[in-house]
Structure to design on (309 residues):
């Protein structure tokens, strides 16, 4: 059964009278005409973002011809598509074009494994990905930058610390496990001009699902991810769908706490002090910017990378 995600939260459209028309679209591959699963859909000015299900379908209610906003559609392995909402009138599909990626060789002589950005997991007390009293979390991805002692290597494993709570029934002894999460890992080489994440180093979708742990170990050896230079990024991509959402209470000034939607996971911030900000965020305009919310006190996410060189 096809699942349609409707972008309702906070969307303002003109001429809202009576029952609204629902405009439904499917995101498809430009060559195969097949649906692209789990596409990131963003409406920029309205600050809305959501992920589709496997059928690539999403809906927008209202009169598109009167909307003055921009839609951005993005999926791994494809070029991002940006279009004004009013130009979608009369359409029922959006076609994405595959991006041209470099094909990396597979190393055969890497022997030594090194761990980058190590930290004590029990010392993690701060988390990124949550709305706060002073700032809403309006990012699609957060990326941690890593530095190798020399160029080249294969990314073997990732460790991620996340915030998770026990799901209990009425009695404390009836714990049914930790709240689940799912997200995607994106691997980028460093942009030598802008300094942030650049070209992707893995074409395959790496989707992580977890419900039992606050400290995740993700084996990447089968993906054959080659690091060409001495710097790269590992990013957490939030999957903004109904099964991955949770709620937080945000106190706005003197007003009573407001229940606000948040998407899991909340990613740990490393307790290790640094001098350079190594966290970058992808905002709703699809722009990579240094993520300075925790600086100057904290400069890194609680993500460790294991590289074989």
């Amino acid at each position: 059964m096809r699942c349609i995600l409707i972008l309702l939260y906070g969307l303002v459209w003109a001429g809202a009278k009576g029952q609204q028309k629902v405009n439904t679209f499917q995101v498809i591959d430009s060559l195969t005409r097949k649906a692209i699963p789990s596409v990131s859909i963003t409406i920029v000015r309205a600050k809305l973002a959501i992920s589709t299900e496997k059928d690539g379908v999403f809906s927008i209610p209202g009169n598109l011809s009167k909307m003055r906003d921009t839609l951005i559609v993005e999926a791994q392995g494809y070029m991002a598509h940006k279009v004004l909402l009013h130009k979608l009138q009369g359409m029922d599909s959006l076609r994405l074009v595959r991006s041209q990626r470099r094909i990396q060789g597979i190393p055969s002589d890497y022997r030594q494994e090194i761990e980058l950005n190590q930290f004590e997991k029990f010392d993690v007390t701060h988390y990124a990905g949550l709305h706060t009293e002073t700032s809403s979390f309006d990012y699609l991805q957060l990326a941690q930058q890593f530095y190798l002692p020399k160029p080249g290597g294969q990314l073997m494993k990732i460790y991620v610390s996340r915030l998770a709570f026990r799901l209990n029934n009425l009695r404390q002894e009836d714990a049914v496990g930790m709240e689940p999460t799912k997200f995607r890992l994106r691997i980028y080489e460093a942009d030598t001009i802008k300094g942030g994440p650049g070209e992707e180093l893995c074409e395959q979708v790496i989707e992580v699902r977890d419900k039992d742990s606050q400290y995740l170990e993700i084996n990447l050896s089968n993906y054959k991810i080659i690091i060409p230079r001495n710097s790269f990024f590992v990013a957490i991509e939030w999957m903004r769908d109904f099964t991955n959402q949770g709620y937080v209470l945000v106190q706005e000034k003197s007003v009573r706490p407001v229940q606000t939607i948040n998407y899991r996971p909340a990613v740990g911030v490393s307790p290790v002090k640094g001098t350079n900000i190594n966290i970058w965020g992808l905002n709703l305009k699809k722009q990579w910017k240094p993520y300075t919310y925790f600086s100057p006190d904290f400069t890194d996410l609680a993500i460790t990378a294991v590289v074989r060189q």
Remarks:
- Residues 1-18 have pLDDT under 50 and may be disordered.
- The radius of gyration is 20 Å.
- The longest strand covers residues 154-163.
